[in-house]
Design brief:
Distance between the termini: 15 Å
Shape: flat
Oligomer: single chain
Subcellular location: Cell membrane
Organism: Actinoplanes cyaneus
Number of domains: 1
Number of strands: 0
Family: Belongs to the drug/metabolite transporter (DMT) superfamily. Small multidrug resistance (SMR) (TC 2.A.7.1) family.
Helix content: over 70%
Order of helices and strands: HHHH
Transmembrane segments: 33-50, 59-78, 84-103
Keywords: Cell membrane, Membrane, Transmembrane, Transmembrane helix, Transport
Radius of gyration: 14 Å
Length: 104
């Protein structure tokens, strides 16, 4: 259960990062509200998962999911650069996250 919560919390990290960008410095109410809810839920989930997953593994997986998710949303939906080197680097992060899961 902790791993499922950790993955969902990592996905929520992507939500709050995108909402933070879209909030225009907290001047737009809807993205600001989404940011606030998503970051609280993400942290609560991370805290729950860290009760049974070691902090180094849990935090690295959480950050990895959030970073890759945010970069993918940026490339797919927001028109950010989707160069081959960037995609290869993201695949390395995914490989590291998967490796940490199985090394646990």
């Amino acid at each position: 259960m902790a791993w499922i919560v950790l993955v969902v919390s990592g996905l929520l990290e992507t939500v709050w990062a995108i909402a933070l960008d879209r909030s225009a410095g907290f001047t737009k109410p809807l993205p600001t509200g989404i940011f606030a809810v998503a970051i609280v839920l993400s942290m609560l989930g991370l805290g729950y998962a860290l009760r049974t997953i070691p902090v180094g593994t849990g935090y690295a997986v959480w950050v990895g999911i959030g970073a890759v998710g945010t970069a993918v949303v940026g490339m797919v939906a927001l028109g950010e650069n989707a160069s081959l080197p960037r995609i290869l680097c993201l695949l390395l992060v995914v490989g590291g996250v998967v490796g940490l899961k199985y090394a646990h």
